[in-house]
Amino acid sequence: MTNLPLDPARIRALFPAFAEPSLQGQAFFENAGGSYTAKTVLDRLEHYYRATKVQPYGVYPASIEAGEAMNLAHERIAAALGVTADWIHFGPSSSANSYVLGNAFGGWLKPGDAIVVTNQDHEANSGSWRRLAQKGIEVREWSVDGQTGRLALAALDAVLDDKVKLVAAPHCSNVVGEINPVAEIAKRAHAVGAVLAVDGVSYAPHGLPDLSELGADIYLFSAYKTYGPHQGVMAVRPELAMQLPNQGHFFNDAKPRYRLTPAGPDHAQIAASAGIADYLEQVAEIAGGEGNPFRRAHKAMRAQEIALARPLLDYLNGRNDVNLVGPADAELRAPTIALRHREPGVEVAKRLAKHGIMASGGNFYAWRLMEALGIDPQHGVLRLSFVHYTSPEEIQSLIKALDAEL
């Protein structure tokens, strides 16, 4: 594997986990469940707890600095997404953010309105919306192909009309891995007057997208899967956010950042999230070139992952005892690779652990997708997920372990 756009040694030097003695000899292939944390994030988190662990937005120096650190995180994450800071809302997780949004839409939509959800999603971007049926909202399903797991645009067209006010879909599935054409989905949703909510949790670790290009009205992702702290990030078009009913304290109704955050935020972790943008700029520096660093980082991360995925996908396609879920073309998918096997996925993962491979098995909260694909959700799949900091040597170690245990 040659001509990688990112030097693995330089990238891995930016993550303390790779120097951690207890993790030596372990190859991490469960990144879809949560990535390692960049040093830039840890440094900001440590500084906040050490120097500014006070109530923010006060009148004394430590409190002022604490508030400024939180403001900076909103600004930096917004810049990485190509939007303004008033788009950004932090919450405890993407699942929690999705349920807050679902409740807000429940007070905004009217009986007889329709929404479209998919059965390709993690339950967080499905269950919260489906509950709106209890309020008289018509819930339509954009269903996957039962053989490939793909969401076809023609199938979306079949469930769209002017009654639809919301379309909720994933940027890519945490099992199928195929990257969905969000910009095209947005055009179709907007053409009937609907807003588009995109679950970006399984895509964002592979490069934060430019939301101005995607056209999504809502984009959710998890900071802890994107080299940061355990927070959920919710980007919402500001005009839409102000139309939705206030989910916070009544006296904060006029404060955009408070309206979709019903609970007190984790100040330190919000401040630390600015380190995600710091890290992406480091990636861009390693990649080289000119122009927007966040777009350069995104491009280099995807190119790195495609190069790493190809030998693994070629190996898996040569076996007849496992079935790959999703496309075999590395350019069409994120490197979240799910395999059907005669044994439950978690049992195979246990055996891989003996070889220093950290992977997992299960349904990964994609219960509806499993059923659509004819997979018993209790049996599940083996999932092998990696990102740009994975090394070529780790890919070869994985292939060797699979050879021994499949």
Instruction: Tally the helices.
Output: 16
Give average pLDDT, whole number: 97
Radius of gyration: 21 Å
Helix/strand order, N-terminal first: HEHHEHEHEHEHEHEEHHHHHEEHEEHEH
* Alpha-carbon distance between the two ends: 24 Å
Instruction: Please tally the β strands and state the result.
Output: 13
Main sheet, how many strands, which sense, barrel?
7 strands, mixed
Shape: globular
Helix content: 25-40%
What is the strand content? 5-15%
- Helix and strand content put the structural class at alpha/beta
Low-pLDDT ranges: none
Strand order of the largest sheet: 2-8-7-6-5-3-4
SSE inventory with pairings:
Elements: H1 8-12, E1 27-28, H2 39-51, H3 61-81, E2 88-91, H4 94-108, E3 114-118, H5 127-130, E4 138-142, H6 153-157, E5 164-170, H7 182-191, E6 195-199, H8 211-214, E7 218-222, E8 232-236, H9 238-243, H10 256-259, H11 267-272, H12 274-287, H13 293-317, E9 323-324, E10 336-340, H14 345-353, E11 357-358, E12 360-362, H15 367-372, E13 381-385, H16 392-405
3D architecture notes:
With 406 residues, the chain is α/β, with parallel strands linked by helices. 40% of the residues lie in helices and 14% in strands. The chain has helices at 8-12, 39-51, 61-81, 94-108, 127-130, 153-157, 182-191, 211-214, 238-243, 256-259, 267-272, 274-287, 293-317, 345-353, 367-372, 392-405; strands at residues 27-28, 88-91, 114-118, 138-142, 164-170, 195-199, 218-222, 232-236, 323-324, 336-340, 357-358, 360-362, 381-385. A seven-stranded mixed β-sheet has the order 2-8-7-6-5-3-4, with helices on both faces. It has a four-stranded antiparallel β-sheet with strand order 9-10-13-12. β6 (195-199), α8 (211-214) and β7 (218-222) form a beta-alpha-beta unit. α3 (61-81) packs across α12 and α13 packs parallel to α16 (392-405). The longest helix is centred in the last third of the chain and has 25 residues, at 293-317.
